[in-house]
Hints:
alpha+beta; 13 strands; 46% strand; rod-shaped
Amino acid sequence: MAVANNPYSRFVQFAKIALPLLALGLLSTMFLFSKSVDIEGAIPIFEGAEEIAREQSLAAPKFSGVTSDGSTITVTAESAKPDLTNPRRLSAKNVMADIETQGGTQFMVLSDDALYDGTTDTLDLMGRVRINTSTGYQLNTDALVADLAVTGLVSPGMVTGTGPAGTLEAGAMELSGENGSQVLVFKQGVKLIYDPKD
């Protein structure tokens, strides 16, 4: 096969050989003079990533329903995660439960922590539990059990706060009644400092 004598053809023939050799030389130089890379230091790892991947959790969950006696209940939380031993149980953080009875009375309950049990349909609120009612009560306690099947609230321990009549303190408290006529009942050494209003 005859080789063309013009300069362009000779340049093309030369480039076909020279350029691949030049590329091979540059590539080998990169490997010869490259520094070793610290893999662990090169990629920052979020310290809690393994724990998050291991644990299932819900962000900003919201649950709502109607009790057997007609009250509407809405429960929201900052986060919640299931119990690995019992899928019908959930633990939640920064919980708010809003209850409205058929009679129109509202109960707003706030707590740091809560445990929902689907087998008993109860919500155990613990930590700093605050109860505000549309009838004028602002109460504090350490633990409160909310019955989500029927409208019920039970505080087995000390309850303090204010109400329409003044400042009160009690050893226990219970929300009782039916058909929208629920009332708060204070028990066990109730103390009331009466504050007459104008």
